[in-house]
Amino acid sequence: MKVKKRKKSRRGFIDIFLFLLLFFCIFGQRLVLPVVGQTPVVFPLVMVTMLIMMLTKKFTIHIGRLILFSLFMTFAYLPVLFNSSFSMTSYVYVFLLYIPFLIKFEIQEEWKIKYLKKFQSAVLFTAFFGIVQFVLQTAGMEFFDPMSFINPEFIQTGYNTTYPIAYDSPISKPNGGFYLEPSMFSQFLALGIIVELIFFKRWNRIFVFFIAILLSFSGTGLLLLAVFSIPLVLRLKLKHLVLILGIASIAGYFFFTSEFGELTTGRTQEYKSQSSSFSIRITNPFLAVFQSDENELLLGHGAGQSTTDPFPFDTNFTVIPKLWYEYGLFSTLIFMIFLFSSVFAKNRNILTAALFFMYLFLSGSLLQPQTVFLMYFIINIANVKKVEELKFTKKKYNILHSKIALTKTFKLKIVKKREVTPN
Fold first, then answer.
1. Counting beta carbons within 10 angstroms of the beta carbon of residue 203, is it exposed (0 to 12), middle (13 to 18) or buried (19 or more)?
2. Measured distance CA(45)–CA(53) in Å, rounded
3. Residue 244 and residue 206: Cα distance in Å, rounded?
4. Residue 60, beta-bridge partner list
5. pTM for this entry
């Protein structure tokens, strides 16, 4: 019986690309090149990689997505015909950011698991870092930012990298050291918990992630977990469900009965104020959209105008209202169909759904390479088999391989014995 040799996982071009993409989407999230304003380092990395893939023909194109994306870019240009306020830089940036979603390449199952583990290890490191940031401040030390040693022109500005947990508080919100904002830190921690619950179930890590989310004093991570709590709970065995509820109950009790917990729960009434974080992200952008006239509702105000037009209230445009305000309803619908097909073509699971929810509603991600390319990274590895299935397949192969090797050795010994036996 012949057994095909199992291909060894070799470190190739795609592997190096995925490693760099993961590194810069987390540890290099705040690093920029001081060109064309500020360009996140991860952006030229992906563009160069796409160029190399095109030159070496190491890719194939999704034709359906190409048609949808071409339609979007056509409709998105229409506002320039009747509106002089149009940012060509913003228009080109959208084009370049989402080109990678047209390209597909194959990754071995084992590498997908390895990169999920690398992602988890990276998030775990930042979780410990965020906890240390908080503990050091409670001990009377100043907030520690590891990026403070880098030349400021290479550090991303325009984000609330950290700010006091309450007005006039000496303690600033932890950001894990490398994230753009505490809210982004909490969202990555929530993704870490979801990955653990789906694939690995390492409860000590889940505990660390949960503590770090609480100490980030940001509700977006907890919101992400709350939205997907039911499908996550349904996947758990009873003993695991009891364990996770126990961890959450104990950590939650000690946190929410402290003065820090009171600060967090006090934010649940934010939606009532138009100047609150909730209103600035969720309701105010849609108010800005619906103040437009009929033509602008259908075709938009023009690329980049959501950041330059004056509004009577503060706004932080998330993906859908930004698309709608700048490019109109038609373009928004086409783009969402394109993106939905890109994300869920092979990944109809909780992880990609959570990432998509985070992208759409929890940050201004439309032109944020760090989040867009993280989503691209995850959708290429999230359609992996369950870890248990992969281990079983590997174990089955190893047992079969060992049996054949023993059989060959046994037969070889018999042949040699016959050769040395005198006639």
1. middle
2. 12
3. 8
4. 104
5. 0.84
